[in-house]
Specification:
Layout lengths: L12 H4 L11 H16 L4 E5 L3 H14 L3 E4 L5 H11 L5 E5 L12 H7 L2 E5 L5 H9 L3 E4 L7 H8 L6 H14 L7 H11 L2 H11 L5 H23 L2 E5 L2 E7 L4 H10 L4 E5 L5 E4 L7 H6 L3 E3 L3 E4 L7 H9 L3 H13 L17
Parallel strand pairs: 1-2, 1-3, 3-4, 4-5, 7-8
Antiparallel strand pairs: 6-7, 8-9, 9-11, 10-11
Helix pairs in contact: 2-4, 3-7, 3-8, 3-10, 4-5, 7-8, 8-9, 9-11, 11-12
Length: 366
């Protein structure tokens, strides 16, 4: 394939908005081989290994671990990559290495299958604040893992790690956790929290960790300038997604639905201001973000019906509906029509009278 066809820098914004990033077009086999090499290089010789979601919350946990132990190897890991990262830890970690898993929640038993090998050879601690299924939490704890799950309505994972790690942290780390929580729980009371979230998304994880470890939540001027420059395009992509969206009545709830490469939280906020109880943002990659409000706190229930999970007010999924590239081509040209329908059907499958629904994992946080 001609590299220019997937070069983000040459695409006009209107087309960039509806197509996935260039990384999407790299075959999984190539990615997996690269990730294995990078994992080996990071893990071998490390005293502390952190498997973490590379967003602001997960990376704040990495900064805390590095501060507490002097150093820590990072394995950036998405929600659907937990098993792969744990397998890399089992294969490459030193015998005496301590292992942390942060800001990640398994969707099923397959995600934690390699954990038994890791826990048999290492001290493992798992910090999170997502909605855990009670059976999965029990399986993890039965392996001897110290699993600490905070209340997803009250804390982020950085809060959990800050409280659980036995270290006298400088005040800037408590502030970092508080500002991270402000964005992760979508409180938006501290303007610095959006800056942290955007910076974590736009730079390499190691750069973010190094910056916040040194500066805490107050980003240095050159970083603030970089974030401001990048935000111009971000806001334009948000506007395009909102413009192509629609509001639908679904099973008694008002749901904003749209498609595009964009920042889902800001798009959801725009729909909320239009009166939406919940929002669905379908991405060109095939995944989707589901966001709720005080009127709809069952996003995780919707997501679990379509190959995902998350929080009552924020969840993600990727419906298992893509069999070949023709399905993706249809996805792009129809602006995610099938994915939208599958997720809206998941809303309809909820019992409107049942506020608890499938939320069997709430007890795991206690």
């Amino acid at each position: 394939m001609d590299d220019s066809l997937t070069d983000d820098d040459r695409l006009p914004l209107s087309r960039k908005s509806v197509l996935p990033g260039e990384g999407f077009f790299v075959p999984d086999s190539v990615d997996e081989a690269r990730e294995e090499v990078e994992a080996r290089e990071a893990i071998v010789g490390a005293d502390t290994v952190v498997v973490a979601d590379p967003d602001a919350d997960g990376l704040a946990c990495v900064a805390l671990c590095q501060e507490a132990f002097g150093s820590a190897a990072l394995l950036p890991t998405g929600p659907h990559e937990i098993a792969d990262s744990l397998a890399h830890v089992a294969e490459f970690a030193e015998d005496d290495a301590r292992v942390f898993v942060c800001d990640l929640c398994p969707d099923g038993k397959d995600d934690i299958e390699p954990l038994a090998d890791v826990a048999a050879a290492h001290e493992v601690r798992w910090f999170d604040h997502h909605q855990w299924h009670e059976d999965l939490a029990r399986l993890v704890r039965d392996l001897g893992v110290d699993l600490v799950v905070g209340d997803s309505d009250e804390v982020c994972t950085a809060d959990v790690a800050l409280d659980a790690l036995d270290h006298a942290f400088d005040e800037r780390f408590a502030e970092l956790a508080a500002v991270t929580r402000d964005h992760d729980l979508w409180l938006r009371e501290d303007p610095r929290s959006d800056d942290l979230a955007d910076y974590a998304y736009w730079v390499e994880p190691e750069e973010y960790v190094e910056t916040v470890r040194e500066h805490g939540a107050d980003l240095p001027p050159e970083v603030a300038e970089y974030v401001a420059e990048r935000r111009v395009e971000k806001e334009a992509l948000i506007d395009l997604a909102v413009e192509r969206g629609r509001i639908e009545e679904v099973a008694g709830w008002t749901v904003g639905v749209t498609y595009g490469r964009c920042s889902q939280n800001e798009v959801a906020e725009a729909f909320r201001e239009q009166g939406a109880d919940a929002s669905v943002v379908v991405k060109p990659s095939g995944s989707a973000s589901i966001r709720g409000t005080d009127a709809f706190e069952r996003c995780h229930e919707v997501a679990t019906r379509v190959n995902g999970g998350g929080h009552p007010k924020a969840a993600g999924c990727k419906p298992d509906i893509y069999d070949d590239m023709l399905d993706y081509a249809h996805h792009w040209t129809t602006r995610g029509a099938v994915t939208k329908q599958v997720i809206l059907d998941a809303f309809r499958a909820l019992d409107p009278a049942d506020g608890e629904g499938d939320d069997e994992g709430s007890e795991a946080a206690e």
